[in-house]
Structures are given as C-alpha cells and as structure tokens.
Amino acid sequence: MTAHTVETLHDTIDVAAPPERVWSLVTDLPRMAAWSPQVVRTFLRGTPVQLGTRALNLNRRGPLFWPTRSTVVTFEPHREFAFRVKDNGTIWAFVLEPTADGGTRVVQERRAPDGIKPISTTLQDRVLGGVDTFTAELRDGMRQTLERIKAEAEK
Hints:
Layout: E1 9-15, H1 19-26, H2 32-35, E2 39-45, E3 54-61, E4 64-76, E5 80-85, E6 91-98, E7 104-111, H3 118-126, H4 131-153
Antiparallel strand pairs: 1-7, 2-3, 3-4, 4-5, 5-6, 6-7
Protein name: SRPBCC family protein
Organism: Nocardioides aestuarii
Pfam family, one: Polyketide_cyc2
C-alpha cells in the first residue's frame, strides 16, 4: 500500500512576546493538552525535551480516543521545533520568527513529506468522517492551538 499524498497544513499568528517565551511554551509537550483541542494528555520518555525525545499522546474527538507516538525531529532553540508522528508519518512543526516589534510570528505546520500512512487514512475514512472532514478539523484545531498559545505567551 502506498501513502496518501496530502497538502501541508499551516496557520500563522503574531504573538506579543519574544521568541524565547514562545519557545518555552511550544516545546512543553505535556502542556499541549491545554492548547490543542485534540490532545488529552502527553507522556514523555526523557526530559528535558530535546532532539530525539519520544512522546505518547492520547487524543480525543468526541467519544473516540486514540494514542499516537512521536519523536522530536527538529530542535533549533527559539526557531523551529518539530516532531514526527510514527503512526501516520506526519510531522508537526512550530516555526518561530522574531518580528520588528520584539514579538514572534508563529507558524504551525502539519507536513506529510512521505504522505500519510494507509492505516491512518483508512481510519479517517471509516471512523473520523473522511479525510477532508478530518483535515478541516485539524485546520480549526491549529487555529485554536495558536490562539491559546498566544494568550498564554502574552499573559
């Protein structure tokens, strides 16, 4: 079976806080449940979070729960943080860019350079309302995640 090709998803938000502050939030994986509408809890294997750190997420959509396993694949302090989800092959990234006013532009991306694994698209089709529906939910979730990180960073 071949992987299902999908577009890169991304969203951007400007935060009135320096990259160091935003970095401390986006790399705090156990706190992701406070920002992402899909993540219920994250368990880390090894701390502090760094390149190679592995995590187990418990995700939820309505009455459905499922685990995902991930590994940190990019760790460039104050610039880019990304982890690859073993179960579907996607990479979730936060790219931080300093702004002229001392703030940070945050770009969140879901990349799938090798496509999404067939088991994942099958589950999306049969259990999660289809790939297009689930992708739309991911887009909405990215917006919510960025808005919640912004609110926390600007406190």
